[in-house]
Amino acid sequence: MLKRFFILCSGADKDLIATCSDGEQNKYAGIGATVFFTAVMAFIASAYALYTVFDNVYMAVFFGFVWGSLIFNLDRFIVSTIRKKGNFMDEFIQASPRIVLAMIIAIVISKPLEIKIFEKEINTVLLKEKNEMAIANKKQVADYFKTDVDKNQASIDSLKNQIKAKEKEVAALYQSYITEAEGSAGTKKMGKGPIYKEKRAAHDAAIKQLDSLKVSSAKTIAEKEAKGKILQADLDKKVADSQPIIDGFDGLMARINALNKLPFLPSFFIMLLFLAIETSPIIAKLLASKSEYDFKYEDAEISYKTLIEQNAYQRDLQKKTSAEMYDGVYNDLREDQELYELKKKNAKAVLEMQSQEYLSKFKKV
């Protein structure tokens, strides 16, 4: 049963191969098994590749089955259409388009399986790229908000600096009138004289200005700080909103690009393996000598071709003979007086009807 199934996969004529020896049947069963398992690998590869795209098992399995069936049909067609002619160069020229097609199929099949085989290494490359993208995205968003944030912070710092400057001025005036009272500076006279009172008044006025400045600046600073928090929240939200896009950067194209960044040789040898598997049935048929099945198939083709040629010749001969016979018949009829009189009578009747019709129309006019 399994042998018959693999022979069916090889594209061989089941009735014709049944008349061949066991060795010939085993050869074609081996070719069919290669075709079948290549289709199975194509199904696995495409299902995994489509799963990375759709993230849905059922959809991936369905389209993977369709793709595997397509590859199976193509391989079966390629193998079954190669005919042994006894001349290697003629056979190679005949098979060269099929070999190119087999190479393309092998590359398409191998790439998703390479992605699965090197999944851990690819994930490492993708993680590195995601981190770089996250840093770049955060910097880009920060640069977008930078002008407003810096301007707002500069305004807050300016107000705070004004308060600090006023506090230093108040402290200096306080120190001035204290040292004046002590007699350690200023007029060097101890006591609360006119200079002391003058300096004390300047200090008290500065304190009032400081208090007024603090009151007026406090509200502005609070508003600026609230605005700064809103800008920072917008910045964080922008970064957070774009992070899922970066986290989802692991589709099929991203994985193929990540695979290309890995060492070339391991991936190349895997592709060569699939190339060898895919082209092996074709190469086997090219290298094999003309066998029992090929002779029987060629004999059947020649017999059928001969039958078609004979039928075509007989149809042409029948057509020619029939035409000659009808030529003779119509020549004889041409001399028949009775038939002549009948046709003359009918023609006369037609002419009379045409004349009456014309006369009727002319009267209406």
UniProtKB/TrEMBL annotation:
Pfam family, one: DUF4407
Entry coiled-coil feature ranges: 149-176
Keyword terms: Coiled coil, Membrane, Transmembrane, Transmembrane helix
Keyword Methyltransferase: no
Domain of life, source organism: Bacteria
Transmembrane segment boundaries: 28-51, 57-74, 264-288
The UniProt record lists the keyword Transmembrane: yes
Name of the protein this chain belongs to: DUF4407 domain-containing protein
Lineage, highest ranks first: Bacteria, Pseudomonadati, Bacteroidota, Flavobacteriia, Flavobacteriales
